[in-house]
Structure formats: C-alpha cells, structure tokens
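stage 2 :: seqdesign
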C-alpha cells in the first residue's frame, strides 16, 4: 500500500481482504476491496452469512484477516500493538455483543468508556451527561439499562461509542429488534450525526431499508464479496 499523509488517507481501506474459517472451508470474506472516504456514512447490507459481522470484527481488530490489509486512517492495523487501545481511541463500537453493564447507570456506562483517557472524574461525568443529552436521553442518566427501553439502551450505546471522539464508528444492526418509534429516533440520530459530524466516518451494518437510504453509499456483501455499490448525492 502506498504511503500517504494521514490527513489525506481514506478513513478506511480494505485491500483484497479474505477471512477463512475451518481450514478454508468457510470463506466468510473472499477478496473484499473497499475504500471509505473520511466523513462517509456507509451502509452495509446483504443476506445473513454474507460476511458483514466478520468485516466489522476485522476493522475493529477483534480478529485478523487470513490475508489482505485493513488500513484505518492510512495505517495498516495489522501493526497495531494494543488492539484495546486502538478500539478505545479510534473506534466507536455499537455492537450487539458489547452490551451495557446492567449494574451501572446509563451515565456510568458512558463514563467507563473514558477510563484511562486522562480525563478527570468530573470531566468524564460532564462529557457523559452531554453525550446522553445529544442522544435525547437527558433525564434518563441515572437509570440502569434494565429501566430503559431497547431503543434507549441503543442510544446509550451510541453515546458510549462517541465518548472518545472516534474517527470511525462501527455499528452492527443498530435498529435490530426495536419498535418502530425507537427505529425512527435512531434513524434521526444517524442522520444528524451524518450532517453535524463531518469528520466522523460511519460503517453501519443494517437490514433496515430506511437506515440504508439515509447513508451516503450502500454496499452489499454476499458470499464474502462486495456485490454492488449504490451512491446517493449528499
Ligand atoms: P453476516 O454478519 O453477514 O450474517 P458473518 O460474518 O456472521 O455474516 O458470517 C459469514 C460466514 O462466516 C458465515 O457462513 C458464518 O457461518 C461464518 N463464520 C463466521 N464466524 C465464524 C467462526 N468463528 N467460525 C466458523 N465460521 C464462521
């Protein structure tokens, strides 16, 4: 991969990325090439088993590709020494498997994302409250996840993902299993993030046609390959 100045490099670039499981019997990703410019809101769709979650896991350095390169901000993440720090500092994750901690309040769930960042307790608290207000959860800060609706929990997860000002937000089915009203609010939130945070790049796996329609571009992953790419004007 050519060396480029970090400011000019795309937010994300996958070059011939393959991920095989079971000694190559399962080709979860089978030669994916994808360039995501800074600030793009990319929706990834496609049938179940197409490789969407696998792709997000590789970008988040939760797993390594069998071959190919994943570059974030021009840097090949295979060279990352501390994947947890990379995720904490550069990536905002909204994953089903990264659930909220049930024994903590909404605010505390956002605050813990900022541990180890050098912010004081007061700063972490203030920032968490601001982020929760941004996702329209002012007044719900002290509730534990069990006393929030599914849509509210998802918005706490989004607030937490934004806590450390990531350059890249990765979301896996952020509207999955939500009622229609909650879906509307999540849709509005993504549309707002897209318009207001021009530096934030978002890669969102979704089956929701309306969420995909709000994206700048939609790619489809099928049998581990990118099948089609549709772009809409901003
Ligand atoms: P999607 O998110 O599009 O539903 P996945 O990325 O979860 O697709 O899965 C792609 C393919 O890889 C599927 O055939 C799945 O069964 C397989 N797969 C995913 N993870 C593993 C694993 N850890 N071991 C073996 N096969 C896997």
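stage 2 :: out
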């Amino acid at each position: 991969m050519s060396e480029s100045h970090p400011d000019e490099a795309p937010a994300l670039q996958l070059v011939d990325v393959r991920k095989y499981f079971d000694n190559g019997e399962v080709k979860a990703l089978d030669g994916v090439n994808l360039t995501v410019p800074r600030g793009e809101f990319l929706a990834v769709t496609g049938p179940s088993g197409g490789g969407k979650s696998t792709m997000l896991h590789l970008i988040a350095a939760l797993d390594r590709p069998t071959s190919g390169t994943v570059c974030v901000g021009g840097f090949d993440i295979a060279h990352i020494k501390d994947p947890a720090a990379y995720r904490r500092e550069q990536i905002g994750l909204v994953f089903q498997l990264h659930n909220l901690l049930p024994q903590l309040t909404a605010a505390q769930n956002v605050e813990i994302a900022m541990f180890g960042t050098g912010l004081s307790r007061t700063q972490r608290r203030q920032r968490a409250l601001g982020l929760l207000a941004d996702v329209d959860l002012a007044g719900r800060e002290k509730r534990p996840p069990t006393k929030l609706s599914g849509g509210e929990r998802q918005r706490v997860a989004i607030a937490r993902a934004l806590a450390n000002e990531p350059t890249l937000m990765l979301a896996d089915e952020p509207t999955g299993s939500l009622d229609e009203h909650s879906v509307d609010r999540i849709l509005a939130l993504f549309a707002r993030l897209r318009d207001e945070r021009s530096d934030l790049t978002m890669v969102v796996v979704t089956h929701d046609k309306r969420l995909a329609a709000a994206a700048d571009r939609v790619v489809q992953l099928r049998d581990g390959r990118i099948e089609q790419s549709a772009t809409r004007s901003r």
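stage 3 :: structure notes
- Residues 21-22, 26, 28, 46, 48-54 surround adenosine-5'-diphosphate (CB under 6 Å).
- Residues 191 and 225 are 27 Å apart (CA to CA).
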